Amino acid sequence: MKVWYIVGICFAFVAAGPARGQVSETEYFAVFMEGRKVGHSTLSRIVADGKVTTTEKVSLTFSRAGVPISIDTTETSIETIDGKPLGFEMIQDIGVMPMKIRGTVSENGMVEMTVNMMGKEQKSTFEWPRGAVMAEGIRLLELEKGLTEGSEYSVKVFSAAVMQALDTEIYIGAKQDVDLLGRIVRLTKVTTKMIVPGAGEIVNTSYVDDELRLQMNVTPIMGMQIEIIACPKEFALGENDVLEVIGKLFLPSPMRIENVNSAKSISYHLSSTSPGEKLAIPPNDNQIVEQDKDGGAIVTVKPIAAPEGATFPYSGSDKTILDAMKPNRFLQSDREEIIELAERAVGDSKDAADAARRIEAFVSEYIENRNLSIGYASAVEVAASRQGDCSEHAVLTAAMCRAIGIPAQVVSGAVYVQDWPGFDEGFGGHAWVQAYVGGKWVGLDATFKGAGRGGYGPGHIALAAGDGKPEDFLDLLGTLGKFRIDKVVVERGE
User: Fold this and answer.
1) How far apart are CA 165 and CA 375, in angstroms?
2) Count of other CB atoms within 10 angstroms of residue 26
3) Which residues pair with 485 in a beta bridge?
C-alpha cells in the first residue's frame, strides 16, 4: 500500500501560508481514510539567518490482513527568504531501516545529493529542474496570485518525496461552508492537478482560509478519500483508528478460474467506474489492450516464453532499456551484496533467459519470512532482512537482474488469486518483474514461485511499470479503483 506518497505529495502543494511575523510556527493536521483517523501530519516553518526552513512530517498506521504497518516520513525544504531553493532533506521510515536523503543546491544550479541507507552513503549529482520551487516559493506565489475566484495559474514544484519537479495547475474556486470535524467554516476551494511523469495525474481539492492557511485537503485514490484536516495538536497526535486496507486492493472476479497458469491466454473485459474517463491500461509484450467506445478496455494476457540463446549484459542503445539497467535508491544493483547474490544465483549460466529464471527461483527461496509487516523495503534491505511481501520480492529480483546486465522493471498490477485474505477468488494488488531478454519483456514472479503458484502467468494484469521506486505505484493506486472486471474469457491450449 503506497498511499503515504499521496499524502506527502499533497502536502508539497499546501505547505503555504502568509508571512505572520513569527520566526517559528507549527500547524497540526489529522489524516483520515474512509472516515477513519489513520495518522497525523505537522507543518512547521522557521525563519532564521536569512533562510526559511519548512518541514512536513507525516505519520500513518494501517492494517494489512491484520498486520499493523507504521509509515513515517519527514520532508524539509531550505530556501532563501525570496523563495530560492538552497537544499532539501527527506527521511523515509517505510522499510526495514530509515533512509535519509540530503540535497544541496549550488549557485550554478547543480544538486549534490547524498542517500544514506543501512549505514552506507551514495552520492550523486543532478541539475536542479529549471524554474522549480519548493514550499516557500509556493507560499510566495500563492500570496502574489491571491484567492480571486476563477483565476488559475501553473507552477513547477520540486518534491523530495518523488525526487522530481511536478508540473502543477491550480484553479481558484468559490467560497463555501466546510465541515471541519464539526466546526463549520467558510473557506475558499482550490483545485490542484499534479502531473507525475510516467504515472499520470493526481487531482486534489484544498480548502483554505482568507490567509491562505490550509484547513482541509481531499484526494480521491483507489475509490477512497484521503482527507487532511487542520485540528488541535491533542487530536492530531491522539489515538488512531484501525483501518484494514487489504480489501481496497481487491477486485471481485465474475467467475472462478481453474488452473489459471495452464491457460494459453485470458481476456479481461474491463469497464470504467469513473464516468467520462477512459481507462489507461498499458500494453506490453505479454498483454494486448483494446479500448472500447465507453472508456473500458479488453486486456488479453498471453505470456511469452523467454527467447533462448540471448546473452547478457545487454549491449544495445535503446534508452528505455538502458534506463532499466541503472541502479537507484531502491534497486541498488551496484552494491556489492546485490552483485554477490546475483552471481550466486546465476552461477555459470551464459544464457539470459536461463539466468533470469535462476534469479527468480533464487529470490523465491532466499526470502524466508513472507509477511505484510513492511511498508516498502529496498533491494539492499531485503538482501539483509530476507523478509517482505510481493514488492520486496520484486525489488530484489529486479536489482539482481540489473546487477548482471539484464534490464528489468518492477511491474505493479492485479493478479488472480483464490485465497486473498478475507475474500473469495478475485484480483489483488500485486508486484512482479519484467526482464528484457532477447528483444522481449518477459514476466518473472518470485512471490508466486515461492508460494507454489508457478510464477508469472496469464492471471497477471499489468497496470504500471517502473524503476522500483514507491512513487511508481501512484499509477496503480490511481487505476485500480477506476475499473471493474465484467467478463473473463479463458483460452486453453490444445
Assistant:
1) 24
2) 12
3) 270
Sheet containing strand 483-492, edge to edge, reads 287-291, 297-301, 263-272, 483-492
Contact in structure between 248 and 224 (CB atoms under 8 Å): yes
C-alpha distances out from residue 430 to 21, 34, 68, 286, 493, Å = 49, 22, 19, 16, 26
Residues 190 and 57 in one domain: yes
Q: List the grid coordinates of 147.
A: 484567492
Co-location of 228 and 305 in the same domain = no
Grid coordinates in use for 416? 488472480
> Which 3 state secondary structure label does DSSP give 94?
coil
pLDDT along the chain (494 residues), means of 10: 45 41 72 88 90 91 70 91 95 76 94 85 90 92 92 91 85 94 92 73 87 88 80 90 69 91 94 82 94 89 92 94 93 95 96 96 90 73 88 95 97 86 78 95 92 88 87 63 89 79
The answer on 335 and 187 residing in a single domain is: no
Bridge-partner residues for 39, per DSSP? 31, 60
Element (H, E) at 5: helix 3-12
What residue numbers bound the domain in which 473 lies? 252-492
How many whole angstroms separate alpha carbon 91 and alpha carbon 223? 29
Q: Beta strands 24-33 and 224-230: pairing type?
A: antiparallel
Q: Among residues 221, 244, 267, which one ends one of the domains?
A: 244
Q: Which of 205, 220, 244 is the last residue of a domain?
A: 244
**Residue 139 contacts residue 157 (beta carbons within 8 Å):** no
Place of cell 516559493: 137
> Using CA atoms, how far apart are residues 417 and 334, in angstroms rounded to an integer?
35
